[in-house]
Amino acid sequence: MIAEVLVDVPAKAVDRTFDYAVPAAFESIIEMGQRVQVPFGPRFIMGYVLQLKETTEVQGLKAIKGVMDLVPSLTRELLELGKTMQFTTTSPLVSIYHAMLPRALQSKYKKTLVCHDITKLDSDVAGLFNRYQEAPYNDSIIPFLPAIKQYIQQGVIEIRHTIQQRGHKKYITYLALEQPDFPVRGAKQQAIIKYLADYDEPQLKRQVLMATKASHSTIKSLLEKGIVTEIEEETYRQIQHRYDALNKCVTFTAEQQVAYDAIHQNLNQHQTFLLKGVTGSGKTEIYLNIIEDVVTQGKQAIMLVPEISLTPMMVSRFKGRFGEKVALLHSRLSIGEKYDEWRKIRRKEVDVVVGARSAIFAPFEHLGVIIIDEEHTDSYKQDTLPTYHAKDVAMMRAEYYDIPLILGSATPSVDSYFEALEGRYTMLTMEERANQTTLPDVYIEDMRYEFQGGNRSIFSKRLKALIDDRLAKKQQIMLLLNRRGHSTFVMCRNCGEVIMCPNCDISLTYHERNDTLRCHYCGHDEQNPTNCPYCGSPHIRYMGIGTEKVEETVKEMYPEAKVIRMDTDTTTSKNAHEELLYQFEHEGDILIGTQMIAKGLDFPNVTLVGVLAADMSLNLPDYQAVERTFQLLTQVSGRAGRHELEGEVVIQTYNPDHYAILYAKDHDYESFYKTEMKIRQLGGYTPYYNIVQILIRDKDVKRVLKIGTSIVMQCRKELEDDVIVLGPVLPKVARINNYYRAQIIIKHQQSPSIDRVLKELYNTYNETIMMAIDKHPQLL
Ligand code: ADP
Ligand code: ZN
Ligand code: ZN
Q1: Which ligand 1 atom sits nearest the alpha carbon of residue 284?
Q2: How many CB atoms lie within 10 A of CB 376?
Q3: Binding of Zn(2+) 1: at which residues (predicted)?
Q4: CB of 435 sitting under 6 A from ligand 1
Q5: Binding site listing for Zn(2+)
Q6: What's the pLDDT at 417?
Q7: Which residue, judged by its Cα, is nearest atom 23 of ligand 1?
C-alpha cells in the first residue's frame, strides 16, 4: 500500500504530496487524515496522509516510520475543505491544515547529539553528555562545535532528530487497594491502607496524600510491595469561570418569533440569514433556541463570537443552556486547554462549540447550524498565512452540510447588507430592544468648539457634567478611547523632533507604568529619556492621549471613584479580562478601555458611555475605516441603558459633521449604508469591486519596488483587460521592523483567471521575496 503524504515543511513551498510505502504493520490502521512520521532528507518529519493507493511511479520509495494518530486528526470533510482553501486563499496546503488543528497536535522538532563511544571524546565534549550518552542541541554546545563536527565526521557522534507533539493529554492518578490485609509496620503506610479500605473504589492519589499527610515515598513503598496500585485516567483541564452559568427563560417578542420561525423552518437546507437586530434586541436568545433545535435533531452547532474571552457573559448563557455539552475555543486558553476542548469535539462529547475565528474548523461531522455573531468584526479574518476569512469558510461548510448559516449584527458589514438586499441572503430584522428599553440618547460634542471656549481638558463640559451626575447617583460609566499607552508621541519642545522607533517609520508611545517608550508595531521598547536624544534639551513633552493618560486624569479628577482600565496592557495575564469585568460590575464606577469594551457587555447599571475621540479611526487610509468607526460608535452606544435605567452617550469629535458620526448618533444604519455605498461606488471598492492586496516585504527598498513592478506587469499581462492593477506603492508607514513594505491592489468585478494567476504569482515569487496575498485586506 502507498500513502500520499503532505509534509510539514513550513517555510519553503513544498506544496505537494510525496509517496511513501506503508509497512505491513500499519496497513490495517492507516487512514486518510492521520498524522504520520516520514523520512524527509536527512531527518524525520511529520506529515498528513492525504490519499491511499496501491501503485506508484516513484522509484526507491521510502517507508512511513510511525503513525501519530489512531483516529485521524483531520476528517474527510476538512481534508477536502483544505484543498479548496488552498486556491481561494493562495496559501500552502500544510499551513491550512495546521490552522485547522490545535497547536498541541503540531510538531516540535528536537535535535539531540548522541554519542556512540564516550571514551573517544575529549573531556570537555564528553562533559556535555548525560549518562544515556545524549546531549541537548542548544547554545551550550556552541563553543565545542568545531570538535563536534569532527566527531560527527568520524561517526562517533550523531545528530538525532525527534518529533514531539506540542501538547499533551493530562492524567490524574488514583490509588487502588489490592491487599488490604497485608501487614505493614509504618504508621503512615497503615494510615493509607485504612483510608483506602474505607472506600469501595480507588481514590484520588492527591486526596489520599492530603488526608493522610503521607509522603510520595510512603506510597512508593506500598506500590513496590504490591499492596496498592496506581491507576491513571485521562482527564480534561478545567477552565475557570468568574461568571456562573445562567439560564433565563424568555418568551419571544413578536419580532424574535418571526426571525426564529424563518430559520427554524429551514433547518435542513442551506441558506444564509442576515439577522440584523439592534443591540439588545435578543439575537442571542434566538441563537440559543436554534442551537437547541439542532442538538435535538442529533446534530451539532458552531457559534463564533469576536473574541470570546471578552464576553464571559455570553459563555455563561451557553453553559447555562447546554451545560457540559459546550466546548470553548479562544485565544486565552493554554495549548493544553485548547487541545482538551478540541478532543471533546473530535470524540463527539460535546454538541456545541463557542469560539473565536479558528473554531470555524471544529471537527464536527454532523453540523446542523453555523452562527457568526457580530459578523462585521475584523477578527474573523486571519491576517497571517493562511489569510482566510471565517465567513468564507463558514459558507463552504454550511453548503457541504446543507444547513443554515446565520450572520448576526446590529451593524452588518456593508458587504453583507448588500448581499441581503440583492436577495442572496435572507434578511431578518429586529428594531426593538427585547426588554422594551429605548436606545440611548446620543450627544455629539465638537471638541474644536470646546477648545476655543478655553476648555483644555480631555472631557467636554457635557461629558464632565454627566460623569459628575452618574457618580452622584451611583450609576456606572464606560469611557472609550481606541488607543492604549499614555501619550501617542513624545516631542522635544526645543528642537521639535519626535522620538521615532529605530526599526519602523512610526513614533514611539509613552507608557507610564514602567516609564518606557514603546513601538506598537514591532514591540521595540526603550527607557524614557530625560533629555532629547537629538539636541539634549530636558524639555520633553507628551502629546496626544492614550488610555493610561485617561486613567491618570480621571483618578486625579475623581479620587473617590473606583476606576478600572481595560486594554491589551492590563489584560496580559490569563483571566484578566474576566476579573476586570467582574470587578467593574460589582464595585467599579468607571471603566476605561479600548474597543475591547465596546462589544457584548451587558451591565444593567451602566447609564453613561463616553467616546473620547471618535475621529481616531476615521483618518486611517483603509476604505473600511469609516464603516468601522460607525460600527464601533453604534456598538459602544449600545452598552448604555440596556435595562431599567435609561442611558446617555456622549461622542467627542473634531468632525461633528461626518456622516459616520451623525448617523451613529441617530442609530440610523440605513442612511449610513446609502451614503457609504455611494462612496464605495465612486472609489471602486467592495461590494462593487473585489479587492485583492499583494504585500511584499524586504530590507532593501529598491528591491521591493523592483519586484513589485514586475508583479504588477505580470498581473496586467495575465489578468483580463477590465481588471484594475494599482501600485506598487510604499504605504505611509513604509518600514516595520526594518522591512520595507510595498502594496499592490487588484480590483476586479468578475475575473475567471484571478485565482490561477495569484497562485502562479505566489509560486513564482514566494522563494524570492516575502509575500502575502489577501482577499479581505486592510489597505495601508
Ligand atoms: P443581543 O444579542 O441582540 O444584543 P440579547 O439576546 O443579549 O440581545 O438580549 C438582550 C437582553 O434582553 C438580555 O439580557 C436578554 O436576556 C434579554 N431578552 C432577550 N429576549 C428577551 C425576551 N423575549 N423577553 C425578555 N428579555 C429578553
Ligand atoms: Zn530636541
Ligand atoms: Zn517599531
Answers
A1: 6
A2: 25
A3: 492, 495, 532, 535
A4: yes
A5: 492, 495, 501, 504, 519, 522, 532, 535
A6: 98
A7: 252
Nearest ligand, CA of residue 492?
Answer: 2
CB 546 within 8 A of CB 509: yes
Nearest residue CA, atom 19 of ligand 1? 282
pLDDT at 85: 94
Q: Which pLDDT value is given to residue 181?
A: 82
Q: Which amino acid is at 777?
A: P
Residue position matching grid coordinates 496559501: 91
C-alpha cell belonging to residue 202: 480507588
Which residue segment(s) compose the domain that 113 sits in? 109-165
Candidate from 255, 257, 275, 284 with most ligand 1 atoms within 8 A of CB, to mutate: 284
Q: Tell me the pLDDT tens digit for each residue of 302-325.
A: 999 987 555 777 888 898 999 899
Candidates 336, 383, 317, 328; CA nearest to 234 is 336
The answer to whether residues 338 and 451 belong to one domain is: no
Report the pLDDT value the prediction gives residue 243, as an integer from 0 to 100: 66
Ligand 3 centre from 741 Cα, in Å?
Answer: 14
Report pLDDT for 358: 94
Domain termination residue (choose one: 648, 680, 712): 680
Q: Is the CB of 256 under 6 A from ligand 1?
A: yes
Instruction: Out of 680, 714, 742, pick the residue that ends a domain.
Output: 680
Q: How far apart are CA 622 and CA 777, in angstroms?
A: 9
- Report residue 271: phi and psi, to 5°: -160, 145
Tell me how far the alpha carbon of residue 283 lies from the centroid of ligand 1, in angstroms. 7
Whole-number pLDDT of residue 10? 60
Q: Whose CA is nearest to atom 15 of ligand 1?
A: 282
Residue 514 lies in a domain: no
Q: Which ligand is nearest to the CA of 494?
A: 2
**Per-residue confidence (pLDDT) for residue 607, from 0 to 100:** 94
CB-ligand 1 contact for 248 (6 Å cutoff): yes
Q: What is the pTM of this model?
A: 0.85
* pLDDT less than 50: residues of the chain: none
**Is residue 325 a contact partner of residue 294, using CB atoms and an 8 Å limit?**
no
Strand duo 107-115 + 157-165: pairing: antiparallel
Domain shared by 471 and 580, yes or no: yes
pLDDT, position 14:
59
Distance 733 CA to ligand 3 centre (A): 10
In-domain check, residue 506: no
Per the structure, how many domains does the chain have? Answer: 5
In ligand 1, the atom with minimum distance to the C-alpha of 638 is 4
Q: What pLDDT score does 231 carry? A: 85
Residues 671 and 739 in one domain: no
- Output the residue whose Cα is nearest ligand 1's atom 10: 280
CA 156 to chain centre: 47
Alpha-carbon gap, residue 381 to 414, rounded angstroms:
16
Of the ligands numbered here, which is closest to the C-alpha atom of 430? Answer: 1
